[in-house]
Amino acid sequence: MTDNIGLKIHNLGKKIWPFNRSLTGEGVLKTFNELKKINSTLKIHKVASGKKVFDWIIPDEWNVKEAYIIDPSGKKICDFKKNNLHLVGYSIPVEAEFALKDLNEYLYSIPEKPNAVPYVTSYYKKSWGFCLADNQRKKLKSGKYKVVIKSTLKKGFLHYGEILIKGRTNKEVFLSTYICHPSLANNEISGPCVTIFLSKWLKELKNKKYSYRIVFVPETIGSIAYLNKNIKKMKKNIFAGFAITCVGDDRCYSYLPSRNKKSLSDKIAKHVLKNIDKNFKQYNWEDRGSDERQYCAPGVDLPVATIMRSRPGSYPEYHTSLDNLVDVVTPKGLAGGFNVLQKIIEVANQNFYPLTKIICEPFLAKRNLYPTVKDKSGSAIDNLSRLIIDTLTWCDGSHDLIDIAEEIRIPVWKLYPIIKILREQKLIKSEKFF
Amino acid sequence: MTDNIGLKIHNLGKKIWPFNRSLTGEGVLKTFNELKKINSTLKIHKVASGKKVFDWIIPDEWNVKEAYIIDPSGKKICDFKKNNLHLVGYSIPVEAEFALKDLNEYLYSIPEKPNAVPYVTSYYKKSWGFCLADNQRKKLKSGKYKVVIKSTLKKGFLHYGEILIKGRTNKEVFLSTYICHPSLANNEISGPCVTIFLSKWLKELKNKKYSYRIVFVPETIGSIAYLNKNIKKMKKNIFAGFAITCVGDDRCYSYLPSRNKKSLSDKIAKHVLKNIDKNFKQYNWEDRGSDERQYCAPGVDLPVATIMRSRPGSYPEYHTSLDNLVDVVTPKGLAGGFNVLQKIIEVANQNFYPLTKIICEPFLAKRNLYPTVKDKSGSAIDNLSRLIIDTLTWCDGSHDLIDIAEEIRIPVWKLYPIIKILREQKLIKSEKFF
Amino acid sequence: MTDNIGLKIHNLGKKIWPFNRSLTGEGVLKTFNELKKINSTLKIHKVASGKKVFDWIIPDEWNVKEAYIIDPSGKKICDFKKNNLHLVGYSIPVEAEFALKDLNEYLYSIPEKPNAVPYVTSYYKKSWGFCLADNQRKKLKSGKYKVVIKSTLKKGFLHYGEILIKGRTNKEVFLSTYICHPSLANNEISGPCVTIFLSKWLKELKNKKYSYRIVFVPETIGSIAYLNKNIKKMKKNIFAGFAITCVGDDRCYSYLPSRNKKSLSDKIAKHVLKNIDKNFKQYNWEDRGSDERQYCAPGVDLPVATIMRSRPGSYPEYHTSLDNLVDVVTPKGLAGGFNVLQKIIEVANQNFYPLTKIICEPFLAKRNLYPTVKDKSGSAIDNLSRLIIDTLTWCDGSHDLIDIAEEIRIPVWKLYPIIKILREQKLIKSEKFF
Question: Counting Cβ atoms within 10 Å, is residue B263 exposed (0-12), middle (13-18) or buried (19+)?
């Protein structure tokens, strides 16, 4: 099943790979259309260019018809149609000739990564440019270069997607990922692709205790716009949340805490990650870089922890054409990202503060839960009895399931069947949930 | 005096050694008769078989007249009269012949400890069996074996002992030990023998600030029965308590915290033990195994820490005939157990939160407590003055004697004479006690 | 400027070097006269001999006209006029002849430091004595020695100095140093000399948020007398305070915490010291030895941390004639002491709990505070932008400047220009100050 889910997510990634995603524009809408095929309850919202959202202004909508350079020999290079990374994001329209020397001021390459086309944007200053591999750049000969950028930058809309899955209560688990990166696989085709499949699983899940709010926004400006509209109800309802980014590579698991470090989300994330991969990397708030910056800003203070495999900026292919669906992002890597998030959501859903209904230890023998002959080693007490007793000793109403699992040093999911028995045997009652 | 007390306790141990202690029965009463000879204020209480105590039922009373096996050659083996460990605790009456193959299902031995007779019980499922050394078992020849168990299991009583020593206030220090183990020395002849001598010392102690409640119960069912009757007043009055087990061997000192880890009992136990033996072993709640399981259960939550030398289950002779009064439990080991408990009780009795009566440091010179010529090293200030000043600087009403001793890195008992001086000099007043 | 200030302080030290400072007497007044030349707002207060101050009595005033010994050859030795350390502090008047054997009981020297004249006092028991180098002592020949001490001990006054520098509020930073040591350089000519220059700098500082209370007292009895008179308003107004001692040598920086360890003064001291010298020594309350003993006594509990270079008692020349202005105390050492205290006071003055005025991150680009083209490394974000964003993320009203600096791992003084920008840009408002 896990391999299967990895392949499905990977296939979706391949479909949305070529679209020219940015803060705004058609690439974003095309991406949403593909995501909707997985979960049709995805709703698309729009915010008009020029609208003030907190300290920011929604930018103009950017679209590109074509963009390329004709070299002195008449050959078309840096063709946007072949790779949308060639064009600097939010480039203004240009049609002009340049000597190589002058053109160079508008070219971006990375000498240390000679085969990588870098990812460059200029959202908030009117500018333009082309990105190319340094190897290719070095071969450019002097002469006249013709630059063609047929782009438009005009009043339009910023779009974001939202799924609200209702559970038995209004209390919400919040998931956020971003959809503004063009042909880059881990950062960030992996996030929206894993997240739409999580939403599909959640929709089908039976008997949900909580509601789930899932958003697909352009990074920074999108989460700010979303918060600008929804902050009141978010602060009221969200008790746990996770920012999802770079969840498709196969290298490690990592986690970046919420700003306050001690939210329920942090507790869940740390418990799940260490029980899935004891070598998971724990970052600090100073390593932040994505939408957790807004969700955890002073005065916003949502309990949002960031779940990643390799952190943005921490892997060599980051923000270049090398971050692709072959070498970096794999079905297995995506399945791992999906799996860890599923486990995290399950923990949020299962968690509560159990309280024993009886005083002193229970008489397990009468419930056929205890071996009846006790030998010299005392070890006749079997694993199940021990787990029941160990769980119950912490059911004092001040330890939640994660605390209990930590006390007895097991993953919390090994407690689920024990809790089921304790409920059936009427040995515990449910206390507060968070 | 210490050696002396060790010998006295050891002699008592030898007297009660042969009695067939169990959850119930004559062996328990015989044991109480011997303990009463040390402290006649020991009161015996009884609870009827069949009574519900929290989640449990008081079991039938078990008594044994005789029990043995006649081997094919007519020789009597596994004779209960020679060693009560031979008979599985709570064995039902049997009189029948078995082929060796069939008998084997009722025999218990430990291949890895070929000379040890194991200790086995079957309290809550009607069953029977014999225990023997594996060496002996291997020599058994095929043929007919006659099994004789003349035991009775019928409505009767569970007995427990209780001593209440009144002090100036109703606040109580609680001590608990258990009396349900047959001929086993450290676990558990040592506990009741050390504890009855502690009660004798406490009875004779003058001017007791607190009262002392001391119980001798069969393990688990006994402490549950006791709690069932007394929990309300226990929760009201007990401010510190200690479970006493395995206090007779000479190997180490150890301590198992209360479930909440931070009670006054834990604070006292850790301070005393580290100042008596810096290598004492500190266990965790997950290592629990005796009546602390009930006293610290959720909803009971008494401040009970467990004081031991070698923890039950941690030493090789545990729960076998090798746990004897020669090789494992010694007068010296018992004296050590007695001494550490005495120190712990003294700390509980002495402890309070002193508050200075003066502002700034005192003028010790006018009280003849300070050297009058101060030389170049500043070290003319002698140890006594230094200790007075160091103590007084922490007499702020928020540090108790243990806190102060920890701050100045000495055992709390070295503070007692200083506190005496501070009181005589009217430099401190007593604040709250706990 | 720093070297300059070191030289100025050192010159002042040379001027006050020869005065016979003690708990009382003319040497103290002469010292104050020199300090007044640096800061004329220094006020001298007096407390009469015999007055009760808490547990103590103000001693008689001690003055010395001359003191010496005539050896058997008629040579004058141990001449108080050459070195005031020769005479035991508070020696009573004596004029008598002694055999060497009898004289020896009144002589003090240090065999392990044969060239050092020790510093000895007998404040509270009427006594007398002479101090000399052990080398000199060994050469004394038997014969008659004539002792002359022309001292007076009579009702008079204990004097202390006080400077109050008013700021915009009544909240005060408190500085205390002591002026009772005779010709000893680090302990303690350095303290009053550095402190008087700090007071001069503070007086000239513009726009002071707080007031500054600076006292020059004889150790112990002086601080007790000062507290006896002022404790109420001190407890009301002082929010941070520092005891200043041994701030003239060039060996290390060190800090002794207030008794409660967690006052704002401790927080400031630790932050400044570790950012000036990561190898600074942190002492514990058990190492205390000066007026912090009174300021932090139970019931007084002022937030006073002690700032030192080499702690009293920790260096080999301590309390001997070797603690001089040549080998131990240097202009560079004094400048270092001055500098660290200046930084500490600045931190106390600048500190507050900033609170962001905006929700989510600010749009730095519109304020020309953010690079506009973002390249592949994401590192186009320059240091200033990063520092602004990093600072603002902690402006939640619950982190003061020191907390923020600790979170982003820089010295707090690197935040001052950032805070200036944030204020100019109206991105923060000031919250509570402590």
Answer: buried
pLDDT in the model for residue B207: 84
Can you give the pLDDT at residue A1?
A: 47
CA dist., res. C245 & res. C250, Å (int): 14
Q: Which fold has domain C2-59+157-350?
A: Aminopeptidase (3.40.630)
The confidence score (pLDDT) of residue C1 equals 47
Task: Note the pLDDT of residue B387.
Answer: 94
The letter for the amino acid at A323 is D
Q: Which residues from A are below 8 Å from B56, CB to CB?
A: 360, 363
Q: Across the interface, which of A358, A365, A393 has its CB nearest the CB of B124? A: A365
Task: Report CB contact under 8 Å: B289, A376.
Answer: no
Task: For C324-375, write each residue's pLDDT tens digit.
Answer: 999 999 999 999 999 999 999 999 999 999 999 999 999 988 888 876 555 4
Q: What is the ipTM of this complex?
A: 0.91
For chain C, the C-alpha Rg in angstroms (whole number) is 26
Phi-psi region of B336 (alpha: psi -120 to 50; beta: other; left: phi over 0): alpha
Kindly list the residues of chain A whose beta carbon comes within 8 Å of any beta carbon in chain C: 54-57, 88, 108, 110, 116, 118-125, 127, 129, 220, 223-224, 227, 231, 259, 285-286, 289, 293-294, 297-301, 312-313, 318-320
pLDDT, residue C376, reads: 42
Q: Is residue A377 scored above 60 in pLDDT?
A: no
Residue of A53, A56, A183 to mutate when probing chain C, most C C-beta within 10 A: A56
Q: Does residue C144 contact residue C99 with C-beta atoms inside 8 Å?
A: yes
CB contact under 8 A, C118 and B361: no
Question: What does each C-alpha distance from C228 to B359, B427, C51, C58, C81 come to in angstroms?
Answer: 9, 18, 11, 12, 35
- The whole-number pLDDT of residue C371 equals 64
- Please indicate whether, in this complex, the C-beta atoms of C319 and B355 are within 8 angstroms of each other: no
Closest approach of chain B CAs to the CA of C122, in angstroms? 5
Sheet strands (E) in C313-383: 354-356
Residue-level pLDDT at B101 = 96
Among B367, B372, B373, B383, most C C-beta atoms within 10 A, so best to mutate, is: B373
| DSSP single-letter state for residue C86 | G
Is the CB of residue B389 less than 8 Å from the CB of residue C321?
no
Q: Is CATH 1.25.60.10 correct for B2-57+157-350?
A: no
Name the one residue in this structure whose structure tokens are 């907190």.
A54
Q: pTM here?
A: 0.92
Would you call C363 and A55 a contact, using CB atoms and an 8 Å cutoff? yes
The pLDDT tens digits of the residues spanning C378-418 come to 444 568 889 999 999 999 999 999 999 999 999 999 999 99
Q: In what order do the strands lie in the sheet with B144-154?
A: B76-77, B61-70, B144-154, B94-99
Of C375, C377, C393, the CB nearest to A259: C393
Do residues B92 and B50 make contact, with C-beta atoms less than 8 angstroms apart?
A: no
Q: What is the pLDDT of residue A220?
A: 97
**What is the pLDDT, as a whole number, of residue C383?**
83
Number of neighbouring beta carbons within 10 Å of residue C5? 20
Distance separating alpha carbons of residues C368 and C385, to the nearest angstrom:
10
- Does the beta-carbon distance from C108 to B376 stay under 8 Å? yes
CATH architecture, domain A61-154: 3-Layer(bba) Sandwich (3.50)
| Contact (CB<8Å) A360/B56 | yes
pLDDT (tens digit per residue) in A43-66: 999 999 999 999 999 999 999 999
- Please identify every stretch of chain B with a pLDDT value under 70, giving residue numbers as ranges: 1-3, 371-382, 431-432
The answer to whether the beta carbons of residues C241 and C173 sit under 8 Å apart is yes
Average pLDDT value over all residues in chain C? 95
User: Rounded mean pLDDT of C250-279?
Assistant: 97
Q: Domain spans of chain C? A: 2-59+157-350, 61-154, 354-430
